């Protein structure tokens, strides 16, 4: 256990040395500030590294991660990240990225209690209820799982569009596009779910806020 911890510190030193060898001003430039064009909302899964997936450098992606890449309207952590990204950093794109094989989505499809996370998974279960006819029509369990991962990512894009933060940016004429992706753990490729929203007019009227 101690050896693993010490190796982390050693890895950090090597990373700093390598970065400075490529660019002596690397960290000095990073310290001046950030102006990323993208907010990434992804899963906490350790196999889904946001920057590496899109080939981005430090400073190019603002990141929020939680179990199953959820956008929950009562989650002040997510809302705080979203507000800062949209209203301070003026990001242009938000990507909600799920991933095939997501443990959170899988757990939400079952009935076994896994602890306090049950309360978080309830949001995902609610989504299953809305799409149960389609999902239950898929006989193959893996295909049904993959389909629900995709549905979950799409639903989070719409949840983003329903927030006053995003709709306020659109009202103010800010360029902001929301996208839904799913990442393949066994391939490295992302799948664009073709759900891109750039105005609240693409939502049901009940969700269009009069700001």
Notes on the structure:
It is a single chain. The chain has helices at about 1-20, 25-30, 50-55, 75-90, 105-110, 115-130, 130-135, 140-160, 165-170, and strands spanning about 40-45, 60-65, 95-100, 175-185, 190-195. It is about 45% helix and about 15% strand. It has nine helices and five strands. Strand 1, helix 3 (about 50-55) and strand 2 form a beta-alpha-beta unit. The chain has a five-stranded mixed β-sheet with strand order 2-1-3-4-5. The protein is an alpha/beta fold and about 210 residues long. About 25% of the residues are buried.
* Beta-strand proportion: 15-25%
Strand order of the largest sheet: 2-1-3-4-5
Number of strands: 5
Shape by Cα distribution = globular
Number of helices: 9
Write the layout of secondary structure elements.
Blueprint: H1 2-22, H2 26-30, E1 38-43, H3 50-53, E2 61-66, H4 76-88, E3 93-99, H5 103-108, H6 117-130, H7 132-136, H8 141-161, H9 164-171, E4 177-183, E5 190-197
Parallel strand pairs: 1-2, 1-3, 3-4
Antiparallel strand pairs: 4-5
